[in-house]
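A note from the maintainers: we've had questions about how concatenated examples are separated. There is no special marker in the raw files; a new sequence line simply starts the next protein. For clarity in this README we add a label.
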Amino acid sequence: MPNTWQDIAVRKQKERTGRIPTGWLLSADVLKEAGNKTSVLDMPRKSGLLSNDELCITEDYDATALVAELGSGRLSSVDVINAFSKRAAIAQQLVNCLTETFFNDALARAQFLDDHLKRTGKPIGPLHGLPISLKDTFKVKGYDASVGCAAFCFKPAMQNSALVDLLFKLGAILYCKTNVPLTMMALDSHNNVFGRTLNPANMRLTAGGSSGGEGALLALQGSILGIGTDVGGSIRIPAMCNGLVGVKPSHGRVPYAGQEGGMPAGSSKLGIEATAGPIARSVRDCELLLSAIGNGRPELFDADVIAQTWEQQTSLRKSPTTRAQKPLRVGIVRTDGHVMPLPPIQRLLDDVANILRSPALPSWSPIEVVEVDITDFGPQVLKVFNGVMSIDGGNAWFDNIEATGEPLSPWLSTRLRRRPTKPLDEVRKLQAQKLELQMRFQDVWRESGGYWGSKDSKAKKGDKELDIIICPIAPHPVPLIDTFNSTNYTSAFNLLDVAAGVLPVRTFTEADTHSENGNSKPLNGWDKINRELWNGDRRSFVGGSMSIQVLVPRLMERKLIESMAVLEKALEPLRGNDGKAERSRL
């Protein structure tokens, strides 16, 4: 008789715990204190397990500054990987964010990198010695990529995912993988094998999904740079929930081949291609990773990747010989026309738009703000996205979980069921609709396209173009566990395949709870559910991160990063005293 999922989960969790050195285990007193706290962000420092040097390594640098220290030899790879491995182990005990750990392999690689640097005086690649954590979907030879499904446990990968091989070439050290939701179609990172990942800033709120383990690990500084994947919001939602910067590239920018997605090989070619991208604590750390990947010949690792270096990609920055710098033209999308954002999200967009319109902005960054109306467009995108994502009818995943008798996770239990597989002609029609919408979205960027200003505007349309679009990531703030409403504000941009990033702006405060939702009739069932979140315990949102989503046209990741860097600086006044200082030693 095959093992039940309960048997497999017990064995798998025992294996995970056994890979943590006994000297890194939290005391009963520390665990008890953590269990009584709403936020555990201070617990790694209070645990007593991290030395002053380890605290310095994990807290006083960002990834860009750290890799400079590693490449110069001022810090050793061995010391750095020990510090982050220990802190990741502490984070795991606090919020249950890890799946696989390979601390010993990482230490051996760190010693190799230190020896090479000492012998040659040269680092190995632009990421020499940098610890990088990975979402569990990535395959690392010799370790499971179970993605929280019992049927995939104890089946070690026979080869690395494409990006894993590229990261090794670039000099990185991989040391752990992080938790995901069952099926990776949920917005809370819960599965029956590893359990639920918690949000370290507020244990009542969701850590997001499907890269929720990455978000929680980074929030606790058990990682300095993580890589997630995104097919409907799985990088951007955890970044939002944990107050981090995240980037979803377009398909074809970052190697994705060779990952475990729980679906038969080739399925992505019939649906929507997932992409891989960074989650970090600063925009420049995302640039560090994406530029290293772009300059590392990624096309040699994945045939889908476009051969284009970082320098060859479209840039926001103007030539030094340009006489007059053109303004950064920002479009503000306030609603997708399907679910109306709650009052605090509307207020956040107001605050952002007002700051960017302010004449007091420094001269280094002239910004022009225009309103963009996609209310007639958004619901169509969501409808096609849902159609494309349900081509398989969920049958492959139901086969996987039923093999060991697994139940669905709570968030999925009322949302996912078996449906008939769509016939070929219906798949073809959906793909045709997807292509049509991608073509139509080109008009949104142009003033002549008819989306600027209100629908009733009769103003003359010119030939101006937007550089970026700012919009919500979700129609609500970071919610309680298992109450995230909809991915419509992220999944639309997977269907359209534009590059998208998340930028934290400020924290949700008590003052945000005082605005009312109005008496208008809900637009639909999703909008009704969204309003119910606001009509419940509004104070539950207090302390959560408030973030914006930034969009650029397809395959313009360099322009996205450069624009986000401008916004990161421009929006500093909104962070006030609750903002997170940049953790870097320059």
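[label: protein 2]
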Amino acid sequence: MDDPLRPSDEAFKQYYERGYATWYTHYQQALSSAQYAPHLDLGHAISQHPRFPSRIELDQENSRFLNVTGYSTWGTTIDGSCPLAPFKSKYTFQISTNRPTVISLAPEPRFGFTKWFRNKDNHLILLTLAWAYVFSARWAEIVPGASVNYTKNQASYRGGTGPLPTESLLVDLGNISSDALRWWAAVLSPGEGWDAVAVSHNRRFKSPWSTAYQSSRHFILCTQNTLNLFSGTPASFSNATKFISNYVAYHNVAQQSHAAFMAALMLPTSQVTKKQVLLPTPQLSIAAKPVPLSHHQNESQPWGKDEAQLDRLLTLSCNAQGVIALLSSTFIEPFIPCNACGAWIQGAFAVLTLSDAKDPHILLHMLINRSPQLSFLWFGGLLTGIQDSIMKQARAALFRIDLQVAAWTNTLISFIQSPLTLAIPVPTEISRSDEARLMFLSQADFHELPPIVPFEPFGKTAVKDCLLEVQIHTKCRSSHGLYLASWAWNHESTTNNSTPAIPMKQAISLDTPVDNITIDFNNLDREKDCSETVTRSMFLWLRGEDGYPPTEREIYKHEWIDGWESDDEDAPPEGDGRSSRHNRVRSWLLGMTKRQPSI
């Protein structure tokens, strides 16, 4: 008799092959393109993502962080011919931190993608620190009660030609103003040279891009003109942006500035995944000659010419949990059945752990090939070193499901996003994946939140055994599917932001032979299969509160499900579709969903 949950050894092997073949294709493409820097167009990225309104209204419910809240309206019927009502959900952005991100020099030479930059000098850490200030200054213009101030810490200024202190890093700023010099002294200061803070209810909250430079090697500033390093007015967002533009033109490092911009965008996420950000030790030289201002006055910034695009990027950037969910989606294939996802993941990481795939230039191209809409996040992620944490979680099938940020970025993050595939005429059976979609779309009791499992459930359910909400809509001829109809910030009028349901990714068919790829099965290990936990989570979402139909007796008696619970508990209820479930199961589900961002 076939096992009701475990796939056969042959099926497990085939799903392993699918994961391996998918990623080996990306690997082969990356081998031929890794010598070239990817073209990243930040000016047109995440065009559907909202941006913080001017002088946003803060959510006062949380005293630990500053939060901003909005509300989504989700559509449930794509063609509008079904009475299934749309539903609303709350979404919260955390827009402050309680500590700066520590940035230091890598103890050993670190890649920094410098071979992609035409200029041999390495200015990455300077420009990352500079962009972090710009983001914080923009944040201070938007958040009520926020401001930026210089601290007493300053980088040293070399006014003469005397000897340099040991291990110092000389930064040539060219011919600049006193205000620009004071700003660079704050940005390149040991520790915190500036402080972006919002005061609310007598508490101080830091900008998410706050930084502290920690290293025994200090920066020493030099200029072509003689200046006094005095305590000036902190630079505004626009002035700080100009200071960076002048530096970039003077040293001809526009590519590095764009890379540093992406690294700075990832600083809030890095706080969640690691203790500090290590960047390459700068290689700095005295510029051969200054570039006239007219040469670069019309150059666009990394975000393009539309300042609203910068605000969209900042809104996404401060949403660290959402960014983690997006990056994790790169390692998800939602239409792999949940009981075989471990095989697909093993095959994928058999390629991702190849020695050549560990080269960051090759790895970045692989990740971009897989998720091109997330390319700028992966570029910044590899610069700040967060990829290891993301990949470690993905290898264990520990994913965050954030449908909100997925819809804004056109990212497939869960099977629940796909439209239903109901057969015509009215079926007597429904796939469990469609059953789950209808349970969520109808917001049935205990199914108001999406499954925390991105992979689809396998098999079918008799329609008569489904919840009433599901039965009703199996008879409906409408096209059911999830889409984001509108978004509004708290105390703001609803704005139309229609986002259609996301189409399915193309996957290699089980029946299609994998040509020209030799599969390495050394990483195939059924003893380390993570599918058990994922499958249990999926069935707890499906049946944990409503009970199992009699036809699923073999499933709920299976050791993957029943073996997880204590022996003295009653068997799961059968057949009534509304029976109560064990309190422990409900508590477990609530605990898991509370760790996910709001949808």
